[in-house]
Amino acid sequence: MPELSPRRRVLVLAICCMSLLIVSLDTTALNVSLPAMQRDLGASTSGLQWTIDAYTLVLASLLMLAGSTADRIGRKRVFMTGLILFTIGSALCSAAPTLDSLIVFRMVQAVGGSMLNPVAMSIITNTFTDPRERARAIGVWGGVVGISMAAGPLVGGLLVDAVDWRAIFWVNLPVGLTALLLTLRFVPESRAPKARRLDPVGQLLVIALFGALTYAIIEAPNAGFASVLPFAAVAAAALLGLLWYEPRRAEPLIDLRFFRSAPFSGATVIAIGAFAALGGFLFLSTLYLQNVRGLDALHAGLWMLPMATPMFLCAPLSGRLVGSRGPRLPLLVAGVAMTTSCALFALFEAETSNVTLLLGYVLFGIGFGFVNAPITNTAVSGMPRAQAGVAAAVASTSRQLGQTLGVAVIGAVLAAGIGSSSYKESFVAAAGPGWWVLTGCGVLVLVVGLITSGPWARGTAERAAETLAAPEIRDASRVVA
Fold it and tell me: Are the CB atoms for 436 and 281 separated by under 8 Å?
């Protein structure tokens, strides 16, 4: 990839951020529209879960394939394909006549989305080669999540109240087309020096693992644990299959040597915990504000501003701190703030008071604003640039898997806890165990962040990078062609 001028690098960053904006904006705006969608399509709680998880599940399943494919055939080419599919999927979602068709069209969206964020991050990594510049660029990237958090609920609420929930998907059309044209004109093509072969067995195992696990969690309250037990068994078998099969491939879908780096492994766990907290937090908040407090979509979106604004303000600050002082301090702030926020809801039922609800939202926004930059920077820094797409894809997969599991688990807890009594009366009590789960996610971010950001952890990262950069030396009898 040729060295670009500073202005061209900024333009490339802006184009990549546009793709993140439509993906993130779509998710946050959709959360605000869930009650309206529930009324219009007659959806149950599990149906609402699937409108979110069908997207994040497909996204998580295909991100690593998209990252390795982009490294092999060209990042610009895959990125443009993703923009086209995401835009088409958005148009189809806006015209979905039933809940089932909406879920299918969300999956089409997700196929395109899987080609956007990890590939865009790979483009950024290869465009900003200086570590400090890269950290600042990633901070800007994380700030876009804050922008989408701030704009998504407001834009979604306004569109739902003024037009219909279907109008949320219309926003993606002009942004997607603009990003496509700008990519064609200004983003240079790049690829890894050595092409990686496809790993269809590994890909099928990932799909089986994520799909079976999510189905078992979401459907357990309705179908019963005995009915979903076979799916849990499939998920366990797929996980064991991955652990056995992938190290024996010459070019695996998931190179398990990445996880020899303690910071990389920590970033993966932190991403799952943080985004599980985000997915569950948004799901509970949206249903509470509209179905319990009786707010319309716009006012529910306004209530989320105290959470969204700190996300927007803290993400660039976190990026600068990561660039100057490393990931330890941002992860400490993130873990403490997210844990305190969720504990307020778990211990004191913060949602029942305007003051504690506001404080809980602000604290969660601060925590999540600080967590994104250290996850991304740790995942891609220290790794060989030739494998930047795969490393970024693993980090993105962890985010989407976390959000998928967060919505699945919290929705299942909510569905199991709400009985035959009044929905409003039983919601807070039913949400209590869910808030404890989210508190645990915050503790996970704090503890794993502190453990994997010390000097010992950095030593494992250096050794892992050396192993990944060295020529592959394996016992030929152990390699699966």
Answer: no
DSSP letter assigned to residue 42: T
Contact yes or no for 400/278 (Cβ under 8 A): no
473 burial type by CB count under 10 A (0-12 exposed, 13-18 middle, 19+ buried): exposed
Say how far residue 474 (Cα) sits from the centre of its chain.
34
Which residues lie across from 249 on neighbouring strands?
480
Copy the structure tokens of residue 108: 């089409």
Say whether 124 sits in a helix, a strand or coil.
helix
Contacts of 353 (CB under 8 A, 6+ apart): none
Q: 3-class SS at 22?
A: helix
Secondary structure of residue 249 in the 3-state scheme: strand
| Whole-number Å distance between alpha carbons of 59 and 109 | 9
Integer Cα distance of 201 and 427 in angstroms: 43
pLDDT in tens, the chain (481 residues): 566 777 888 898 999 888 888 887 877 788 888 888 888 888 888 888 899 999 989 988 888 788 778 878 888 999 999 999 999 999 999 999 999 999 999 999 999 998 887 788 778 877 887 777 887 887 787 667 667 766 788 888 888 888 889 999 998 899 899 999 999 988 888 877 766 678 889 999 999 999 999 999 998 887 788 888 999 999 999 999 999 999 888 878 888 888 888 888 888 999 999 999 999 998 888 888 888 888 888 888 888 889 888 888 888 788 888 878 888 899 999 999 999 999 999 887 777 788 889 999 999 999 998 998 888 777 766 566 666 656 767 877 888 899 999 999 998 888 887 655 566 667 777 888 999 999 999 999 999 988 888 777 767 766 766 676 654 434 333 333 3
Q: Measured between alpha carbons, how far apart are the two ends of the chain, in Å?
A: 30
The residue whose two tokens read 């969660």 is 364
- 389 touches 120 (CB < 8 A): no
Are residues 245 and 202 in contact, defined by beta-carbon separation less than 8 angstroms?
Answer: yes
The DSSP result for 360-426, as a single string, is: HHHHHHHHHHHHHHHHHHHHHTTS-GGGHHHHHHHHHHHHHHHHHHHHHHHHHHHHHH--SS-HHHH
CA angle 438, 211, 409 (to 5 degrees): 20
DSSP code, position 4: P
**Which pair of tokens denotes residue 437?**
């789960």
Alpha carbon 309 to its chain's center: 19
Do residues 344 and 454 lie in contact, with contact meaning Cβ atoms separated by under 8 Å? no
* Cβ-contact 379, 267 below 8 angstroms: yes
DSSP helix/strand/coil, 480: strand
Q: How many CB atoms lie within 10 A of CB 181?
A: 12
User: Buried b vs exposed e over 112-131: b needs ≥16 C-beta within 10 Å?
Assistant: bbbbbbbbbbbbbbbbbeee
